[in-house]
Amino acid sequence: MEKPVPIAATFEIEYLQYLDAEGKLVRDDLPAFARDTKQLVKLYQEMLMVRVFDAKAIALQRTGKLGTYAPCLGHEATYLAIGSTMQEDDCFAPSYREYGVQFHRGVKPRELLMYWGGDERGSNFSGPAHDFAWCVPIGTQCLHAAGSALAFKIRKEPRVAVCTIGDGGSSKADFNSALNVAGAMSLPLVAVIVNNGWAISVPRDAQTGARTLAQKGIAAGLECLQVDGNDLIAMRAAMDHALKRARHGHGGMVIEAVTYRLSDHTTADDARRYRSEQEVKDAWAREPLRRMKAYLMSLNAWTEDEETAWKAQCTKYVDAEVNAYLETKAQPVEAMFDYTYAELPADLLAQREEAIAWEKRT
Amino acid sequence: MAQITLIEAVTQALAWEMKHDPSVVVLGEDVGVNGGVFRATLGLLDKFGAERVIDTPLDETTIGGITVGLAAQGMKPVAEAQFEGFIYGMLEQIICHAARLRNRTRGRMSVPAVWRAPWGGGIRAPEHHSEANEALFTNVPGLRVVLPSSPGRAYGLLLASIRDPDPVIFFEPKRIYRQYKEEVPDDGEALPLDVCFVLRDGSDVTLVTWGAQVKETLEAADALAEEGISAEVIDVATLKPLDFDTIHESVRKTGRCVIVHEAPRTAGFGAEISARLAEHALYDLVAPVERVTGYDTHIPLFRLEMKYLPSVEKIVAAAKRTLAVS
């Protein structure tokens, strides 16, 4: 066109980072919470605990004591930022590896192990009763969060629903539907895209031509931000902002947490089939614990001795949880019937009796 | 007392329950100002406001998923699929989440929601507006599948479905939405779920059906009566869970059974009833079970649809085939 054409809309996506990969501050407007060094130490300790747990869970699977398990190696900062900023009566709708969020919200490692260990009781967990359990059908949890947010809005409760989803999941209809309805109805929804680079074997760039995943919220009318997901301080600042505006009726937000899946997709996967060792090696240089440790040590808030002692404590705690899990007996056969309906219909009761009788056959 | 149609009974039930239970909300496409494309939600927006009569974005995935979220947080959503042929976009949410949330959380969470949808053929509608897809849902554990066939049963069963603590698929036979009126007291009285309704007593043959086919089946019973044949007519009403006892009791008496439904035959819900008869009532049967159903084809566009649907003549012929065996 020869003459200038008016612009209908423009957008920008900001990228937020406080701590670089070496643990050095890159901004001088440190948020208030980050000046509380004790709190940062506590969150770093929780990140370490998640990492110790993760390694233990993989070891359990490798020795036949756990079913397929989805590790969370490398995602610890993103998860602890979400967990530590949400209020208890907010609602969390995860996919299936957000253990750092859930432990912070009261879910016990033994419950998580029960879920991956083939026992439904794991999803009847000690975390908030209104939090959703692990969600395997990709992206569907985003609409549960949107529906929860709608319930809060209808009842005029100052609560926020938070969902997490992977970079692959951001291609799904349910995710895009959730953002769309959150924008259309101005719902208190915070959607965190945990962009770890890989959807099993398919890299992030094969998911979409969009420059960022955060911008997927722009079309829905949501505020959008890309964050260094390996930077606990930046992720916490982003979550604080998103939760505050949602809680005060200013609508939903999309946060793209850029991190990296340092592990296989699950214990049933072998990532060496589809990505280079060099890529993983480079990613280790950006991982979240290393930089937080360096930062805390630069403030003289953490020492190697404390790290060694804390890791030993984590191992002790995780071992106790593992033992509690291993000691639980399988549910009786009738347990598969008992929660199908609030009250069992007659024909299902008959099948329940049939199953019990079969177990007791001589 | 006012005489009302089946669709008016749906509206009356929704209004009653919204008035008496503030956790009930209605959501779907065009359910607000427009009152739904069939007017099932007519007047609800004025009575209860936009926060409880929610026009959603035009996206079945959204309706399916936010209904689960609303219900899990203590609301009682009644979601409308504009037509049964559009419900497929909600299937993953219904099957993977609504139906199993109670089980997978050992009762910590549940989905007390209703999915309403106009159902079935025979209204000369465009493609994808005439399906009888109830059997897709009767194979899903955790769901109830309910199909009323009169204004009174639409009112009573919808109230019961909304009050039920588990997810209910509530299919409304759109062909008889406005077919006739009857007195339906607006008294909030629910009808029982999980039971069949015996609409006509008979002794020679049992006719089992649901939905709009109740009309043709009752007419077939009239036609058989003129020939001295006494047909019992059962409206299954709740397909899942099935009240087989009522059907079995009837077949013990008659020894003969014709199952009538407009869905395709293979693995249609008639197959389940037939299988249970074979398992539990074989020695009560005098004649093989007959099924009068849609063919295993897509329901044709409307020039041919009446040739696809079960008719009075087909039902009468099937009943007579069972009576030819002695």
TrEMBL record, chain A:
Biological-process GO terms, alphabetical: branched-chain amino acid catabolic process
Dehydrogenase E1 component domain mapped to chain residues: 45-328
UniProt keyword list: Oxidoreductase, Pyruvate, Thiamine pyrophosphate
Origin superkingdom: Bacteria
Catalytic activity: N(6)-[(R)-lipoyl]-L-lysyl-[protein] + pyruvate + H(+) = N(6)-[(R)-S(8)-acetyldihydrolipoyl]-L-lysyl-[protein] + CO2
Gene3D superfamilies linked: 3.40.50.970
Enzyme Commission (EC) number: 1.2.4.1
Pfam families xrefs: E1_dh
GO molecular function terms attached to this record: pyruvate dehydrogenase (acetyl-transferring) activity
UniProt cofactor(s): thiamine diphosphate
InterPro entries recorded: Alpha-ketoacid_DH_E1_comp, DH_E1, PdhA/BkdA, THDP-binding
Subunit structure: Heterodimer of an alpha and a beta chain.
Job of this protein: The pyruvate dehydrogenase complex catalyzes the overall conversion of pyruvate to acetyl-CoA and CO(2). It contains multiple copies of three enzymatic components: pyruvate dehydrogenase (E1), dihydrolipoamide acetyltransferase (E2) and lipoamide dehydrogenase (E3).
Protein name stated in the entry: Pyruvate dehydrogenase E1 component subunit alpha
Native source organism of the sequence: Dokdonella immobilis
From TrEMBL, chain B:
Transketolase-like pyrimidine-binding domain sequence ranges: 4-179
One GO MF term attached to the UniProt entry: oxidoreductase activity
Domain of life: Bacteria
InterPro entries: THDP-binding, Transketo_C/PFOR_II, Transketolase-like_Pyr-bd, Transketolase_C
A matching Pfam family: Transket_pyr
Described purpose of this protein according to its UniProt entry: The branched-chain alpha-keto dehydrogenase complex catalyzes the overall conversion of alpha-keto acids to acyl-CoA and CO(2). It contains multiple copies of three enzymatic components: branched-chain alpha-keto acid decarboxylase (E1), lipoamide acyltransferase (E2) and lipoamide dehydrogenase (E3).
Protein name in UniProt: 2-oxoisovalerate dehydrogenase subunit beta
